[in-house]
Design brief:
This protein has helices at 11-22, 80-94, 109-117, and strands at residues 2-5, 35-41, 44-56, 61-71, 97-102. It is of the alpha+beta class. The protein has a single domain, classed as Gcn5-related N-acetyltransferase (GNAT) (Aminopeptidase, 3-Layer(aba) Sandwich), CATH 3.40.630.30. The relative contact order is 0.15.
Length: 133
Amino acid sequence: MDIVYYDYKYLDSLNELLNLSFNVTKVGEASNQDIELIAVVENRVVGYMLLNRLTDGVKGINYFYVNYVCTHPDFRHQHIATKMFQKVFLLCKEKNISYLELTSNSQRKIAHDLYRKLGFELRETNVFRKEIL
């Protein structure tokens, strides 16, 4: 398994994974500030995460908001997400990223266990969203 930056040649395979995991299809391009990582086995995308680079303008620090963390069902329990996060931790140090933040559906208990194991802490907050478009 290789963990690499997303390349358009993997679009069909990535969309299969995103559809299985979130019932969505990738149609856009990430901004040049963002990072898309994929885990690849024999030219098949088996893991994905999108890192949105953000800046806290008050504190003057950069952070990544982590989106779409997923592993293909046929490849779960092989530590793929753990290895992807280990790469992310290294990227954070290289790119002066102060912290990672993510949200996760309350039903994703296995994912929550992974996040805790990796050092993430549950915050006391509610997430609000207003759809515009």
